[in-house]
């Protein structure tokens, strides 16, 4: 049953993802490719929506994916709601259980040299997973034809320079400080959305 598969896969993601929502993207991409639940373009759109909507990125993305998968069943909209609940609960459950255990044994975990050593080993891997997600999503936006499993000249045939310019413009804005404060991410997201509407919606520039 698709809901059991959805629960099991997202439970594993919630259990083995360390470092936040972006660190889970490689695992999400892997299961989506495995079951064919979404296309790469749909996943990128969901990432954008999950980042732009209120709430934790990881939970939002799980909810969107679960809803999409659930709606493919004969239950329709109700199936989408059930899929969203299934994926959301599955991705949150491992963290909830672990946090409860850690809170009860906090002092022991805090002073354990084994735990500290494990965390020191995990941190570089988390950075690597996040960089992998950034590279994969970035290339999918800028080079939509590029396939990392089969890199060839055709993969570089389409270059989305407009997206690259938008990214290059907004990255320094995210680091800019005005009167000692950075520009709020919500302002940047809304501004980028407005730019996208004007370029791709009003002027209908082809990507």
TrEMBL record:
<keyword id="KW-0812">Transmembrane</keyword>
<feature type="transmembrane region" description="Helical">
    <location>
        <begin position="155"/>
        <end position="173"/>
    </location>
</feature>
<keyword id="KW-1003">Cell membrane</keyword>
<dbReference type="GO" id="GO:0015109">
    <property type="term" value="F:chromate transmembrane transporter activity"/>
</dbReference>
<dbReference type="InterPro" id="IPR052518">
    <property type="entry name" value="CHR_Transporter"/>
</dbReference>
<comment type="similarity">
    <text>Belongs to the chromate ion transporter (CHR) (TC 2.A.51) family.</text>
</comment>
<feature type="transmembrane region" description="Helical">
    <location>
        <begin position="185"/>
        <end position="203"/>
    </location>
</feature>
<keyword id="KW-0472">Membrane</keyword>
<feature type="transmembrane region" description="Helical">
    <location>
        <begin position="77"/>
        <end position="106"/>
    </location>
</feature>
<feature type="transmembrane region" description="Helical">
    <location>
        <begin position="118"/>
        <end position="143"/>
    </location>
</feature>
<dbReference type="GO" id="GO:0005886">
    <property type="term" value="C:plasma membrane"/>
</dbReference>
<dbReference type="InterPro" id="IPR003370">
    <property type="entry name" value="Chromate_transpt"/>
</dbReference>
<dbReference type="Pfam" id="PF02417">
    <property type="entry name" value="Chromate_transp"/>
</dbReference>
<keyword id="KW-1133">Transmembrane helix</keyword>
<protein>
    <submittedName>
        <fullName>Chromate transporter</fullName>
    </submittedName>
</protein>
